Predict the 3D structure of the following.
Amino acid sequence: MNKAELDPKASPAAEYGIFLRSSREARGWRQEDLAHATGYSATHISAVETGRRPPTPKFARKLDKAFGFDDVFLRKASDVKSSALLQGFPEYVAQESGAVELRLFDLGIIPGLLQTPEYARAIALGEVARGSITLDTAEERLSFLANRQASLRREPPPLVHVVLDESCLRRPIGGPAIMAGQFAALVAFAELPHTVLQVAPYAIGERRAFDLPVNIITLPDRRLMSYAESAQKGHLERDTAAVPPLLTAYYQLQAMSLSQADSVARIRELGEDLL
C-alpha cells in the first residue's frame, strides 16, 4: 500500500497506522530509527503504519516509551482491538481493495460488497435493537462498508465471483420493499461484464463445500489470501500455499451451484413474489 493510498476511514488499524506515521515523521525519524528505539523490525513498523498488521498492547507500550507519550498509543491500540471489526478483517480489506480477483461465498445474508444501503442499514439496526452493538458502532460499520464497496468501482475493476447459499435469498431483511431492492441490485450485479453470480440451492445438501462465509482473493502478483469468519472470530490466511485447498473447494461449490442464468431467474422470481 502506497502512502498516498492510506485512508483513515478504511479501518481502525489504518487510522492507527496513519497516526503512527505522522508522529514518526514529525520527529524526523525513519522507520529504521523507530525500529531501533522499539526493538521491532522496520518491516513490522511498516506493516502497522499501512494497516496491514494491528498494533498489540506490547508494541503500543514500546511506542509510547519511544515517543515519551503517556499511554497515547496504548489507548489507541485498545480502540483498534475493541473495534466493531473482527480480528484479521481490516488487514483483509486493505488487501481486498487492490485485489484483481475476488471469490466470495456467504450464507444467511447477502455479502457486504453486494448489499444495498437499505439492506445493510436494516441489518445494523437489528443488531442495535438486540443490544449487541451501539448506534455509533452501527454507523461505523455502514461507513466502513460504503468505503469497501467504493473500492470495487475502480478501473480496471476486479473480477468478482460470488456464490450465495439459498439461505441468503430466503431470509427476509428489513421487509418486502428492501428485499425487492436488494434482489434488483443482485440482478444488476450479475449483468456486469466482470462478475459471476451463482446460487447454491438447498438441494445440494451435504455437498455444500463451506459452512462459514469464505472470501478468497488474488493479488496483482498472483498471491492468494483467504478470509473466513464465524460470529465471533475471523481468520486471515496469508500463506499462499495454504489457500489452494479452499480454492479447489470453491470450484467444486461453483460446479454444484445453479448457472448464472438460472440463478438470476431464481432471484427475479423471488423479487416478483414480493411485489
Q: What stands out?
A: The two ends are 45 Å apart (CA to CA). The chain has two domains: 3-81, 89-273. Residues 89-273 form a domain with the Endonuclease; Chain A fold (CATH 3.30.870).
